[in-house]
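ok posting inputs for the S-adenosylmethionine job
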Amino acid sequence: MPSAASHPAYPAGLRLAGRKVVVLGGGQVAQRRLPALLTAGADVLLVSPTVTASVEAMATAGEIRWERRRYRAGDLEGAWYAIVATDDAEANTAASAEAEERRVWCVRSDDADAASAWTPATGHSAGVTVAVLTTEPAERDPRRTAAVRDSLVHALDEGRVAVPRQGNGETPRVALVGGGPGDPDLITVRGRRLLAEADVVVADRLGPRDLLAELPPHVEVIDAAKIPYGRAMAQEAINEALIAHAKAGKSVVRLKGGDPFVFGRGMEEAQALAEAGIPCTVVPGISSAVSVPAAVGIPVTHRGVAHEFTVVSGHVAPDDPRSLVDWQALARLRGTLVILMGVDKLGAIAEALVRHGRDPETPVALVQEGTTAAQRRVDARLATAAETARAHDVRPPAVIVVGAVAALDA
Ligand SMILES: C[S@@+](CC[C@H](N)C(=O)[O-])C[C@H]1O[C@@H](n2cnc3c(N)ncnc32)[C@H](O)[C@@H]1O
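and the output
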């Protein structure tokens, strides 16, 4: 056989679903490789006297079979692929020889030159798997392949490397993307990628507005707040705009603040699109309900202090017959109350909570424009929260946190 050392590896995508893969050794190498093997659907047999806690959890969950012993000849019978990564050099050499004998492709963590296969640095984005191999085995300098992989995945995430759409590109589609609370770094990777692929973006006032400036000039950005019609009709007009652009064959992103399904009217848009026969993808976002308190160091739960948190809309006053919120019940809860859209009605809300039994001295934090450059926090007590908010000119958008967590310090 010619020396393998002078030849580069031949790349191939192994389709391992239902096929036996043997992993020898249950340490860090196994822990790192197992998730991808499981994603590929491999039938994994792990042989090792000891394993890490994560590997043990996979065995307990029935995701892999674990034989609690050392390697012995014959272990590779019926295998298509093997990963040899024990801490016993002799066992590694013997297993590697068995793999060669049985024609089983075999990766070796201790001696890449002696192995018949190398593990590429892999990553996934935009429905693409990136696998990077160099002429040297990655095992020898994993940082090199990992760096190339990271650059490629990052470029795909941000849409800097184009992935042509499937089909003829004319299938209408809309993505309802949760943009997070405002900081452009707090959108999900998927959301950011869809934004980079969009032809039309319908954006809210809240959310990561800075990202819009990065869009290429051909992308049409529609400000949802400025869509004509009266206020009551605004949602209908937004729905119509989404449908019209999707039907024109455009890739449409509806960029919303926070999470689309947390006081975001996302479901109304999803329903309107479904009625029009347009497929819609929902991309969850980081809701301001949790992230804005976190941005100023307030945990919505804390062991021994608050074991529940309730998120409530404060846009309708408690005594308004249209209110769907049971403020009396909320006043009896001992955990954290997170109020969105509550600045205007804060006086009535605080009064109702106190009247129904919440301690007037309960700490309150008002966090305006959280995670943006204009973020500010004002602290108060429940009984005087509205007064304090007025004195400090707190304006929407703000998240109001009521509860002992608002007085915690790191
Ligand atoms: C219509 S709701 C939308 C909530 C959004 N879907 C979410 O999950 O965060 C708007 C309210 O969210 C809160 N909000 C959103 N972004 C915020 C931010 N960056 N800072 C403070 N409050 C914010 C405010 O209470 C605002 O009035």
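notes: The first helix runs from residue 28 to 39. The chain has a mean pLDDT of 92.
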